[in-house]
Amino acid sequence: MFNDAKKTKFRQNAFLSVLCLLISCGxxxxxxxxxxxxxxxxxxxxxxxxxxREKYTAALEKVPESDIVNFNLGTAFYKEEDYEQAVDHLQKxxxxxxxxxxxxxxxxxxxxxxxxxxxxxxxxxxxxxxxLEKSLSxxxxxxxxxxxxxxxxxxxxxxxxxxxxxxxxxxxxxxDQKQCDLPKDKKDQQQQDNPSQEEQEEQExxxxxxDExxxxxxxxxxxxExxxxxxxxxxKxxxxxxxxxxxxxxxxxxxxxxxxxxEELTPKEAQMFLESYQQTEExxxxxxxxxxxxxxxxxxxxx
Length: 303
Description:
The protein has 303 residues and is mostly helical. It has a domain of 162 residues: Serine Threonine Protein Phosphatase 5, Tetratricopeptide repeat (Alpha Horseshoe), CATH 1.25.40. It has eleven helices and no strands. Helix 2 packs antiparallel against helix 3, helix 4 packs antiparallel against helix 5 and helix 7 runs antiparallel to helix 8. The termini are far apart. The N terminus and C terminus are likely disordered.
C-alpha cells in the first residue's frame, strides 16, 4: 500500500506540473501583443477605427516603446479625428531605425498637424499658423527620405498655400488689435491717413464711376458739337446752292425775257411780250430745306 500511495502522489504531482506549464503557456500567449496588433489591423481595414484603437492601446501597454504600435495607434487616432493624440504617438516613431516606417510617420504627422491647425483657426490663428509651419517641416523630411513621393509633394504645396493665407489673416488681426488699443483721436487720424482695404476699394470704385461719367459727358458734348457743325455746313451749303440757283434763274429769265430781235420790235409788240411773260414766267421762291439723312441702321430683332 505504501508503494501504491507513493505512485498516486507522484502522478498527482506530475499532473499539477503539466497543468501549471499549460497555464503558463496560455498566459504568455494571451500577453503577447502580436494578437492585439493583428486584430487591431483587421478592425482598421474594416473601417472600425475605435475598435482598432482599443486593440492597439492594449498592445502598447505590453510594449510601450514599440514603433509599429505607436504608428498604428497614432494613425487610428487620426482616423477618429483626434489629431492631438495622433501627433503625440506619431512623434514617437521618428527615432525608428526603419526608414520606410519613419517616412510614413513624417507624412502622417504632417497631415495630423495640418488638420489640428485648421481646427484651431477660429479660436487661435497664431496656433494654427504654427501648426501649419510644423506640418510643412514634416513633409520636407518625408521628401528628404523619398524625393519622388508625389503625395508628400502635393500636400506640401497645398499646405504652403494655406499657410500664406493664414499668415495674412494673422497680420490683419494683429493690425485690428493695435487699432483697438489706440486712443480714439489717434484711431480717427490713422483711418484718414491709412484707409482700410474696403474703403480704398470703395474710393477707387467711386473714382472710376466719376471718370466714366466724365468720359460719357465729353463724348456727348463732342458729338453735339460735331452735329451742330455738320448742320451749319449743310445749311451754308444749301444757302449757297439757293443763291447760285437764284442767280442762274435770273440770268435765264433775263435771257429768255429778252427777245432775239428786241431792236426790231415795235412798241406795241414789246408791250404784248411783257404782259405774256408776267402771266407765264413769274419766278417762284426757292426753298432751302435741310433734308434729314436716311437712317440706314439695321432693324433690331425682338426675338
